[in-house]
Amino acid sequence: MTEHLTKQLFLEKVFNYEKNQEWKFEGETPAVIDFWAPWCGPCRMVGPIIDELSTEFEGKVKFYKVNTDEEQELGSVFGIRSIPSLLFIPKEGPPKMAVGALPKESLKEAINKELLVEVA
Predict the structure, then answer these.
(1) Mind listing the pLDDT tens digit for each residue in 92-117?
(2) Cα(120)–Cα(50) distance, rounded to whole angstroms?
(3) Judging by beta carbons within 10 Å of its beta carbon (0-12, 13-18, 19+), is residue 85 exposed, middle or buried?
(4) Is 8 helix (H, G, I), strand (E, B) or coil?
(5) What whole-number distance in Å separates Cα of residue 81 and Cα of residue 3?
(6) Which region, left, alpha or beta, applies to residue 93 given φ > 0 means left and ψ of -120 to 50 means alpha?
């Protein structure tokens, strides 16, 4: 299931940018964060795909959503200028950002390549 993140949940589950200058992932499982807004057409196309992938990758990858209208600070921390923007967070190493409405197969490929390399 996809989980909606507030700033507080983001600090606990993803990255506590108030405490750490350098990237330090707080999660146990690789993650994908969908930065979106309700008025964004392409975001509404990506949303159901993210939900499907959260079921397909259950137990392997966590899926989160950040509403950039409600959580503007989180968007600015990552320099989100256009949405949808997807942040791919591996267990180790820095996250990678993808911008735009990517098709499901491209997202699956990115998840397998960027997040599940040590598992494969």
Answers:
(1) 999 999 999 999 999 999 999 999 97
(2) 21
(3) buried
(4) helix
(5) 22
(6) left
Residue given tokens 């997202």 in the structure block: 107
Strands, sheet with 96-99, edge to edge from the N-terminal-most edge strand: 2-4, 62-67, 31-36, 85-89, 96-99
Amino acid at position 108, single letter: K
Segment 38-85, tens digit of pLDDT = 999 999 999 999 999 999 999 999 999 999 999 999 999 888 999 999
What pTM does this model have? 0.93
Q: Is 34 exposed, middle or buried (0-12, 13-18, 19+ CB in 10 A)?
A: buried
* Cα–Cα distances in angstroms (integers) from residue 40 to residues 44, 58, 69, in the given order: 6, 26, 11
Catalytic residues: 40, 43
Taking CA atoms, 46 is separated from 16, 82, 106, in Å, by 27, 14, 12
CA 35/CA 76 separation, integer angstroms: 11
82: its two tokens: 């256009």
Peptide bond into 103 cis (omega under 30): no
